[in-house]
Amino acid sequence: MELTIHIKDKKYITSFLNLLRKFDYIEVIDVKEDTYDIPEEHRMLLDERLKMVEEGKTSFRDWEMVKKKYEGETITLR
């Protein structure tokens, strides 16, 4: 059985997909996003990252988790 879902607010897409991937009886077959506002170079990086996740070489990182990791740290630009 296949199900098509439209997520109205883009900020929830990643969280929703991560939730679905936790269920062993659900397979995410395809994700189609409105990518017309993403530069081609960025899209290529995202595709590469997704491929690494699918191959089990890395995992998705929740933005809140990443933000907490770097809170209070100073970033020096060179």
Polypeptide structure, described:
The chain has 78 residues and is mostly helical. It has one domain (10-70). 41% of the residues lie in helices and 0% in strands. It has helices spanning 13-21, 40-54, 63-70. The longest helix is centred in the middle third of the chain and has 15 residues, at 40-54. The termini are far apart. The model has no long low-confidence stretch (mean pLDDT 82).
What is the gist of this entry?
The chain is mostly helical and 78 residues long. It contains 3 helices and no strands. It has helices at 13-21, 40-54, 63-70.
Radius of gyration equals 15 Å
Main pleated-sheet profile: none
Assembly state? single chain
- Approximate strand percentage: under 5%
Overall pLDDT, averaged?
82
Keywords:
78 residues, 41% helix
Topology:
Layout: H1 13-21, H2 40-54, H3 63-70
